[in-house]
């Protein structure tokens, strides 16, 4: 069996983490995530897993210029989508999502197929740890 000369797709699993502008009403958030998914599927990607965005304070302020206006933001909607695509399409997918005005920032990385970490699990673990930790006034009384 020789090489027939046909190009073989090299599928790779990617995860895209994104921030959406906080000015988007929650009932319109699905339109933005649909636009992100459309870019992925248009380029031949297939969604594997995802977590719907939720509003979260940012660790530092970020800015985005839209038209003649510059916005400085301290919170945003945070979400992610894991998908499989031809490795030659990764750049086009990233560029397509960057063109969506409502997307503040994004990060595209190679990822394992299985989802071992989710933001919801991390938030739940953080809250559980926070609730079980003694407060500083309780520590002072014990000492």
Describe the structure.
The chain is an alpha+beta fold. It has a single domain (11-113), classed as 2-Layer Sandwich (Alpha-Beta Plaits), CATH 3.30.70.60. It has helices spanning 29-42, 90-98, 119-132, 136-142; strands at 11-20, 46-66, 69-86, 103-110. Strands 2-3-1-4 form a four-stranded antiparallel beta sheet, covered by helices on one side. A hairpin with a 2-residue loop joins strand 2 and strand 3 (69-86). 16% of the residues are buried. The model has no long low-confidence stretch (mean pLDDT 86).
Mean pLDDT: 86
Radius of gyration: 20 Å
What would CATH call the class? Alpha Beta
State which percent range the strand residues make up. 35-45%
Order of helices and strands: EHEEHEHH
Structure classification:
alpha+beta
């Amino acid at each position: 069996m020789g090489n027939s000369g046909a190009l073989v797709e090299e599928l790779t699993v990617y995860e895209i983490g994104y921030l959406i502008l906080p000015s988007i009403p929650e009932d319109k958030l699905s339109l933005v995530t649909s636009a992100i998914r459309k870019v992925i599927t248009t380029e031949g990607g297939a969604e594997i897993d995802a977590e719907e965005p939720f509003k979260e304070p940012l660790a530092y302020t970020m800015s985005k210029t839209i038209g003649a206006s510059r916005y400085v933001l301290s919170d945003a909607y945070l979400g992610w989508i894991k998908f499989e695509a031809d490795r030659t399409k990764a750049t086009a997918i990233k560029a397509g999502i960057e063109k969506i005005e409502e997307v503040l920032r994004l990060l595209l990385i190679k990822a394992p197929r299985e989802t071992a970490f989710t933001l919801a699990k991390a938030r739940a673990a953080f809250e559980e740890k926070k609730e079980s930790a003694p407060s500083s006034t309780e520590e002072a009384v014990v000492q």
